[in-house]
Amino acid sequence: MSDPQEAPIANTAVGKVNGEEHQQETLMKLMDRQRASRAPCIRMMMDGQKCVVNGFHFSFIHLLEGKWSGQCVRLAYSGQQEEQKAASTKIQWNEEGFWSMRETTAGEDGAAYIRHYRFLPVGHGLLSVDLEDGPRDTSLTLTESAVSVGATLIGTSPKTGLLEVSELITLTSEGMLQRTSQRFNNGRFESLWVFSERRVE
User: What is the pLDDT of residues 146-172, one digit of tens each?
Assistant: First the structure.
């Protein structure tokens, strides 16, 4: 016979999972509607520090617009030797209503790996993120910090709900773009990437 005290706990857990699934589904539907809409996007800059897009307020992401260059270092949990690569990031505003980011990394062999991201405003300081022209194998959201000094990128698996990416993005007082990205495999920590870049244009 099951312990009657376990029932409320189980119900609470189920309710939490259902709530998270509903929130994610709502975000995805909003992103699809905005992408399909042909209505012009309205963006206003306020005092050079604040940005308003279709009524949503942002205080950080627009400060990253431009091109950045530096390096990234990969530290593997498995004890593998650390890997260092050249890194380049370009972030720009698209008049269709989103920010785009091109991330390029290259090793000593000269081979370059490029990824394109799209950041779509869906709330105050909140953006839904996806790979441009790519599959949605990870649900990504970017949330600006309350004190306007950085943002957090979180990625989970739509199928399992397990964490896949957890990234902290900050802009230092020296003007450096710092990104610390934890990568996971089936919810288990796999590696840590540290990006350090300076604005070049």
Answer: 776 899 999 998 888 999 999 999 999
| Helix/strand/coil (H/E/C) assignment for every residue in 126-148 | EEEEEECCCCCCCEEEEEECCCC
- Count of domains observed in the chain: 1
CA atoms within 13 A on the CB side of 5: 0
Q: Residue 179: name the closest of 103, 66, 65, 81 by CA.
A: 103
Range of the domain at 171: 6-199
| pTM across the whole model | 0.75
In a domain, 1, yes or no: no
The confidence score (pLDDT) of residue 100 equals 96
Rounded to the nearest integer, the mean pLDDT of the chain is 81
Any idea what the CATH number is for the domain that residue 74 is in?
2.40.128.20
Please enumerate in sequence order all residues whose Cβ is within 8 A of that of 151, keeping only pairs 6 or more positions apart, or say none.
60, 61, 142, 143, 144, 145, 168, 169
What single-letter DSSP state applies at residue 172? -
pLDDT reading at 73 higher than 90: yes
Tokens of 134: 């790519």
